[in-house]
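TASK: fixed-backbone design
INPUT:
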């Protein structure tokens, strides 16, 4: 899973025993060489799906990390593009990754639960960040996103179908979450990262409570499971006009 240029086991251990913010500051220089980075195939599929409803004017990448979502927003947005993250280390890598982006791109250090914007965006995207939020934090998070979107704006993010109980992936994720719960019960500060806590039914309900109109769009690039359900969907939450 990790190449020779990725983090060592010791580096991952130090990260896991840190806070979320400090952990990602430490991991940032090697983050793009880990399996934690959202694959390009997912980014391209989301961009292709959103192109059918665009173009947009101003876009925000929520919890942008090292800037993987930047290419999606620059393809879709005619105006400004902003990345927001609370890790200074991740933002530093993002700035270095796109040095020629110019004034059209801005990077802002802030907590997604207290965004420093007014209704300034037509599109908000996020990739692979929701495991860092506990279920009880979703109402506040989605209310924040609703507040920074202009009327008619969209909040979009991909969701992969969970693995079946009979597959190794199911037990791997179950084991990871169990280890993290034990770690957080015994060690401070906590490191919030749970793969199985972000459940689509709960997410849709909380988005609607925050005032969004929610649609689920299959991402056909990833095919369907044996029961006919999509392997991947894009959640599109629209702020009413």
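OUTPUT:
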């Amino acid at each position: 899973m990790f190449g020779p240029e990725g983090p060592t086991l010791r580096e991952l251990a130090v990260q896991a025993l840190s806070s979320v913010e400090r952990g990602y500051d430490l991991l940032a220089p090697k983050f793009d060489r880990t399996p934690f980075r959202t694959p390009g195939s997912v980014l391209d599929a989301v961009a292709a799906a959103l192109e059918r409803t665009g173009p947009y004017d101003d876009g925000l990448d929520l919890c942008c990390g090292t800037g993987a979502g930047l290419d999606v927003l620059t393809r879709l947005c005619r105006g400004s593009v902003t990345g927001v993250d609370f890790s200074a280390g991740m933002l530093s890598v993002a700035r270095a990754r796109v040095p020629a982006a110019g004034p059209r791109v801005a990077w802002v250090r802030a907590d997604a639960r207290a965004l420093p914007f007014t209704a300034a965006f037509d599109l908000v995207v996020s990739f692979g960040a929701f495991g860092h939020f506990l279920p009880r934090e979703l109402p506040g998070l989605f209310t924040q996103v609703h507040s920074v979107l202009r009327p008619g704006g969209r909040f979009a993010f991909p969701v992969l179908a969970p693995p079946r109980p009979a597959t190794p992936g199911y037990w791997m994720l179950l084991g990871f979450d169990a280890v993290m719960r034990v770690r957080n019960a015994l060690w401070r500060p906590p490191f919030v990262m749970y793969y199985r806590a972000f459940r689509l039914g709960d997410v849709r309900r909380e988005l609607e409570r925050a005032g969004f109109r929610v649609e689920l769009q299959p991402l056909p690039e990833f095919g369907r499971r044996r029961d006919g359900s999509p392997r991947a969907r894009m959640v599109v939450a629209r702020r009413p006009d």
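COMMENT: Helices lie at 9-16, 20-27, 40-51, 70-76, 88-97, 138-148, 168-186, 200-209.
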